[in-house]
Structures are given as C-alpha cells and as structure tokens.
Amino acid sequence: MIWIKKLKALLHDPPYKGLAWDNVKYQISINPDCNDHKTFKTFHEKWACDLIKRLFPNENINDNDVKEADRIASSMSRLILKPELGDKNKNKEFEQQINEAASQNKVFIDIFSKKKEDIKTPDYKKVHKLFDELGKLQFNNDEEKAKFIFLFLWRFYPEIFPEIEKHPADLRAPNHSIYDHLVQTSAIVSALPKPAILIFTIGPVQSFISKARKTSDLWAGSYMLSYLTWKSMKALVEDFGPDVIIYPNLYGQPLCDLWLYEKFKNSPINTEEFKELIERCKRNEGELTIANIPNKFVAIIPYDSSNANICENNFKEALKKISKKVSEKVNSQNDGLKEIIKEQLLSHFQVYWAVLPWVVDENDYKPDDVLEDYEKLIGQTPLYYTVKEVIDHRYYKGANVGSAYSLIIELVEKLLGARKSVRDFKYLEQPGEKCHLCGEYEVLNINWEELRNKKPNLVKEGERLCGVCTTKRLFPEIINKILEFQGEIKFPSTSEMASIGEKRRLSKVIKRCFKIEFESFRLKYKTIPTSISVLKLKGDTLYDIDGQWLMVSSYRKDYLEREYNFQNVDEGDLEKMRRFLQENNINPSGYYAILQMDGDNMGKWLRGEFNPKIENVIHDGVKDALIKFSEGDELVKILKILCSPHPTSPSIHQAFSRRLSTFALESVRKIVEEEHYGKLVYAGGDDVLALLPIEDVLNCAKDLQKAFKDVLSPKATMSAGIVIVHHKYPLYLALDEVRDAEKRAKNHYGKNAFCLRFLRHSGEPRECGGSWELIDFINELICKFRTEEISSNFPGKYLEIVESLYGKDSEDLRKILKSELKRVFFRKVKSEEKVKKFFGEMLYWFDKLDPLNFANLLIISNALAKEVRI
Q1: Percent of the chain having pLDDT more than 70?
Q2: Distances (CA, A) of 690 to 379, 469, 667, 834
Q3: DSSP 8-state code for residue 649
C-alpha cells in the first residue's frame, strides 16, 4: 500500500493551505477565546480529507505514518523557535502574536536571495476540478491508481498551479513552498519506519570524459556517465518514487520525464488538457541529449543496504548491456571478445556508496543519537551548536530527528569519504598492445581494417582501440537506439566550430555557389562524412557541410586517403575545389574555443555555508516576538541562533538542485547554442563544457556567469577556463589545457574569474585572466586592432620590454613599464585624440593586473583580432 500512503502524504496539506488563516481570523472575530492554531489545523485537515475523498471515496487522510513523516519533514525545514516561558498565559500570548503577525502580513521569502514576495494561492475551485477529473480514472486496483495520480501530481502540480511554488508551507517560516514540504513528507513516509540517507557516486569522471580524439567521443563520455547515473537510481525511482532523490532534483529532468511518459502514455486519460501535459514529458532530442545528471546522487530510502546494492547491480547491468551492443556493432560473434569488453568496462568504473540511518530505534525519532555521533566524529562545530540550540528551543513538543538533517548529511559524506579511501582493486591482466587513445587497456582483437571499411568514420587509419574507448566511439549509435531518436546523433567537428565565423560572414550567393560545387564533389566521393552544425538552427545553407571543406588544406590526397579511406582520388577534383575557395576568398580561421565553467564553492553551498541567517528567512513577526518574550541568558541564545546560518534542509537541497537544473536545461543550452553559435557538451548543474567559435566564446562565458547568478543567487559565482586552439590540435590535450585553465582561474585569479589561453599552431602559448569585467576590455581591444585604430605591432614590442624587465628587483618597475606602455602605444597611432580615452581605460587595467598578465592580454587580443571572421 506504499502508493496510497505516499499519495496521502502528498495531499496531507491542501495546496491552498494558507487560506485557512483567513477562516481562523473569522472564527476569532466570533469567538476571541478560540485556539487559533487548533482552528487552523481543523480547517486544513478537513480540506485535505476532502481532496483524498475526491480520488478515493472510502479513504481518509488520517494515517499515523503520514503524521510521523509530516512531523519529521516540518522539523527539517521550519525553524520556528520558542523561548521557555513557563506561564500558560504567556505561552498563549506568544503563540497568538506570531500567528497573527504571520497571517496579517503573508509573505514568501526566497531562501537564497532573501527577497520577500506576496504569497500566491491556487484557486481552490480549479484544484477541486482537477481532483474530480483524476478521481474518475479507472484502474485495475486502488494501488495502481494511487501510483499514477501520485506521479502525475508530483510532476504537474507546479505546472498546473504555479502559485504553489510561492505558497509557503508555514506562514511563520515562509522560506520553503508547500510543494517542497509535501514532496519531503512523501519521500520520508516511504522510508519509514527507519529512514536513511544514501549517497551514491560513480567514477572516474574527468579522465573518462577527456580521453577523446573526436568531439563525439567527448559528448559520448559525458552523456554515458549521466545515463549510467540515471540507470543506477532508476530502481529507487521505480520502487519509491522520484521524490526520494533529493539531489539532483529530478523534477523536469529529461530522462526522468521520458520514464514518466512511458508510465502515462497508456493511462485512461480522456481530457485534452491532461494529454497535452503528458506530451510535454516526451521532451525534444535537444533536451534529451544534454548530459545534465551528475555522477552523484543523494536519496532518502528505508534503511536497508540491499537498496544500495540494487543501484550498484543496475549500474553493472547497464554496462553489461552496453558492452553486448558494442560487440554486436563490431560484428563479433566471439563470446570471448564480448567478455573482454565487459571486463574492461567493469574494471574501468568504480562505484562508491554509503547509507546511514537517521535513528537507532525505529520507534524513537529523537535527535539525541545523531547529535552524539556528530560530536564524536566531527566535533562541536558552529553547525552543531546551532542545531542543538534549535532543538532546545523547539516550538513543537517533542524534538525529532528532522532538526538534525544537516548533521546527518555531513555524517554520510564523512562515511562516503572513508569508503572511497579504501580503494577496490581488481587486477585485469593486459599483456597485449595498448589502446591508441587511452593507453590503459589492451586493444580489441578484431579486424580493424574491415571494420573501418564498413564504418569509415569510426576509426582513422591504423587506429586501434580498447573496449572502453570503442564503447565511447559507438555510444552515440547505441543511445540513439535506446532512446529511439528520430535521427542520427551527430556532433560538430572541431573544424566545423572553427569555420562558424566564416560561414556567418559569407554572402548567400557565395554559399549557394559553394554548395553546388561541393555537392558534385561529394557525389563522386561518397565516403565523405555528413556533419551537423549549430547553424542548422539559423537555417544556414551550409549547415550540413563540415567546416573543414571550406579549408584549402583539406583537399589533399594523402589526408583524404588516411582520414576517410578515399579510393582513387583525382587530383584534378581537389585542385578544382582549392581554386574555387581561393577565388572566392573563402578562408576560415583555423582556431576554435573550448569553454569549461564551474560554480565556485559548490561544496560549501551544498553544506549550507552560504545559507542566509535564520533571522532573514523567518517571518519578521516571529523574530520580533522571540526577542520580546526572551530575557537574560535566553535572549542572548535566541539572538545567537537568529544570527546563525540556516541549517541545510531537504527544501534547500531541492531548491538548490532545481535551480541548477533550470540553469542547465533552460539557460545554458539557449546561451551556448542559440545565442552564441556553440555546441554544448554537458551541463551538469554548475558544470559546463562547450565548444564555441572564437568570435563568441568570451561573451558566451560572461553571459553564462550572469545567468548563473540570476537563476541561483546574487552570491553565486562561476569561474571559467577558456582555451583557443587550432582545430588539428589533439582534442585530449586541449581538454587537459582547458581543465587546467579552469583550475587556474579559481586558484590564481581568485575565483569569480576566467583564465584565457591561446595555444598557437606555431609559437609560444599565452595566458591571461582576471575578473569578468575584464572581458569588455578585451572585446574593445579586439575591435581596435581589427579597425587598425591601434597598431598590431604594439603588443609584441611591449611584451619584449616587459619580458626584459619582468622579475627584476626594482621599486620603480611599474612606473617604468607604465611609461614604456605610453611610449610604445602612441608611437604608431594615427590619431592620438581618437584613442586617448581608450588609453585611460588601458591604464586602469594596467594598474589592476600583473605586468606579464597584462602584456599577454594584449598579445592574445591582437591574435584573436587576426582570426575573427565576422
């Protein structure tokens, strides 16, 4: 009966609960002596009972497990404190004051921005209409019906009634929505009688993703990890519901929506409105192909290690199924080879998990054991003292373990860290030739030339891969079949990304002429791979012609035979294409950009170190009453609690995760692909990896960090590594560079910053970086160099001076370099007056940056000016 119980938990408070206070005020006007809290409770419990009966006429909302789950969920998120008053009249006066203040001035407080808004309440008539329609649905049994309705409401409650996300669960602590509270209660009720936290993680991440020769390898590695994490948690979602996954929040997650669609599509739905909602769960391929599930999840489950074992077994089974499909794709009937692929995959990945129960005795939900364990293992931290004082000043009688949720999370993280320190070692003998891509595992013993003839784009001439890298190479085909996409999954090449600016620059006439010329070439050499460009979104004529075919250097016989297995290439055909490009001045840049961004201090965010003070996210009337009714030492304690950060709760975890998901699914893809002509590789919440044309990468990075702040919190920041690299530069090395640049942005440039590297095809690599405001200056510099308002010789001359003096012990070094900057800058300027103001801005940044960093910035800006095509 788990689903009926979960449905009761989801409905134990009506979505318009706050209206009950209006009825209470009316009752008090009739009878001033009535107990306002009991009256309020009577109203909303009556309304909740009405809702469940509209679905199941013979059911009642009252359920002891639901009441226990509600108490725990309330303690997790509601910090309503109460001083020790002793006197009954004072107790009543205190309670009436906070209830009256909260009901007269109803607000909703955003937990991250502390912004106060008027609450929004769903129209109860519309709610009743929805429940009446759901109640008419016919299923084989009540449990089946309850499961359908629970999943339907979990997914569509906020879409049908968006007001519930601004409708507080409690007007006195209005920092979490009624929806969040209901979902937490339903998650806890399915974990009773002994709830536990599970943290589950898969690795390795960076090394698996970055071992890539092709851009499709890069996408495949990131998406495969995301998909495997989903497959691991799916057993919990099936058995207990998507609400039990606290982080990442699965609401609106495309793979979860696809799972829901399979549940919903054959249901006895008749109304067009319901059908339209269900169709939204199908999601488009663009959304489904974004790797946005991190390699780690947190869940509330019943305390039983078998649940974690099931997740691990599901992970292994998913790998085994993928390995079987890989062996089929390479046309192998060799059972030994199938086993090798499977063993290499299972050996490569590591799964770690930790489960911790909230209580020792399932009949005792007091927080004492958690406090004791935390004090022993971690110590008396500020968080420990805050939680302990909150428990000591509890508003509701009988403190429970819900108040210690933040301590439990930290304890499980500690447990997981200890588990990771005990490395699992499985020796896998690999005596033969090592993989040409990763160098870790033995290459597969197959006929690679025969495979190359059948799949020309799978491997290049002479390339041999292990089971892990072959899986990545074939994964786009495999996942395409699994998710039943309409078309083939394709990823633009590095050459395509480098050519975007040129494609945008060319006239429509030139594009049409080139397309005609190239189609005759492509018709003759049928093994030319088709491509896909982000320009398809813009309806560009050349969207399906890879950018390398706009480059003269691509029309070489030896290159085409080696890379694409071309046969009998006619040199005359190549010369004809080269001549067309040269005569029409088609000359794309050879450079593209890789952008890697990461939220700063995400661990601290998740641990609650950036949470607002408690006083900022409880109702002002509650804070005033606490101060008014407290005296002496107790007042000191109350003031200390109010000034402490709000402990982390499931509400905060869910809100945080939901905002990260909104950023990843709604903001990132739009900014990268629609606004800046890039291609998103992954967007796992605060992690972003994308390929971009050099013309757009700087502005794209700046727009992403702004969107991150807008979606998450004004306090939230991101750092970025940006690498400008030649399209022929080995991708796995470029990925190492961008990962290192992103770390350098955090460690050297001080977080909330970027690090920009230009890896010249020939010449010394250059690096510069700083705060996000610096990007506007770089953009202006590029513009000045392109229009020749500033001499292109100036950066090189100035760098020579800086390098000759840099590092020398001189108090006047900056003065000398500033004087030299002015001399070299103005030496070849056509109009001093025209650039005088800009030079003032240049001096501003000279004063803020390290001299070598500043000189490199000039060099990079000048180099970019020469490569930009639009």
Answers
A1: 95
A2: 42, 21, 13, 38
A3: -
Closest to 514 measured CA to CA, from 585, 591, 571, 570: 585
pLDDT at position 332: 63
CB atoms closer than 10 angstroms to residue 544: 14
Enter the DSSP assignment of 673.
Answer: I
Which segments of 506-550 does DSSP mark as H helices, in order? 508-524
300 pairs with which residues across the strands? 197
Sequential DSSP letters for 332-376: ---HHHHHHHHHHHHHH-EEEEEEEES-SSTT---SHHHHHHHHH
Q: Are 617 and 646 within 8 A, CB to CB?
A: yes
Measured distance CA(662)–CA(751) in Å, rounded: 23
Are residues 219 and 290 in contact, defined by beta-carbon separation less than 8 angstroms? no
- Residue 506 tokens, joined: 């060319």
Task: With beta carbons less than 8 A apart as the criterion, state whether 678 and 690 touch.
Answer: yes
Q: What stretch of H or E contains 688?
A: strand 687-692
Read off the amino acid at residue 474. L
**What is the pLDDT confidence band of residue 235, given thresholds at 50, 70 and 90?**
very high
- Kindly tell me if the per-residue pLDDT of 316 is higher than 90: yes
Helix 650-662 with 64-77: angle, nearest 10 deg: 70
Sole residue written with tokens 């991190």: 294
Mean pLDDT of 325-332: 84
User: In the 8-state DSSP scheme, what is residue 477?
Assistant: H
Largest alpha-carbon pair distance within the chain? 101
d(CA 185, CA 10): 7
Are 649 and 173 contacting, i.e. CB atoms less than 8 angstroms apart?
Answer: no
Closest C-alpha among 735, 750, 644 to residue 681: 735
Would you state the pLDDT for residue 656? 87
What are the pLDDT digits (tens) for 571-625?
A: 999 999 999 999 999 999 999 999 999 999 988 888 788 888 988 988 998 889 8
Q: How wide is the angle at C-alpha 195 spanned by C-alphas 194 and 196, nearest 5°?
A: 120
123: which residues sit within 8 A by CB, 6+ positions away?
16
Tokens standing for 690? 């994308």
Task: Look at the chain and count its residues.
Answer: 870
Q: How far is CA 297 from the centre of its chain?
A: 12
Query: Collapsing DSSP states into helix, strand and coil, what is residue 109?
Result: strand
pLDDT confidence band for 87 (50 / 70 / 90)? confident
Question: Nearest-5° angle of CA 678, CA 679, CA 685?
Answer: 110
**Strand arrangement, sheet containing 296-302:** 245-247, 296-302, 195-203, 350-357
pLDDT digits (tens, 9 = 90+) for 171-181: 888 899 999 99
Query: Whole-angstrom Cα distance, residue 218 to residue 351?
Result: 21
Report the share of the chain in percent with pLDDT over 90.
50
Instruction: Look at the block and give the residue holding tokens 């990823």.
Output: 491
Task: Find tokens 């209660």 and name the residue.
Answer: 185
Residue 347: how many other CB atoms lie within 10 Å? 16
Residue pair 637/393 in contact by the 8 Å Cβ criterion? yes
Cβ-contact 301, 656 below 8 angstroms: no
Q: Please report the DSSP string for 46-65 in residue order.
A: HHHHHHHHHH-TT--S--HH
242: number of Cβ within 10 Å: 24
pLDDT of residue 36 exceeding 70, the answer is: no
**Could you give the CA distance from residue 294 to residue 250 in angstroms, rounded to a whole number?**
11
Per the CB < 8 A criterion, the answer to whether 156 and 134 are in contact is no
The amino acid sitting at 543 is Y
Is there a contact between 473 and 326 (Cβ–Cβ < 8 Å)?
A: no
DSSP, residue by residue, 760-776 = -SSS--EEEEEETTHHH
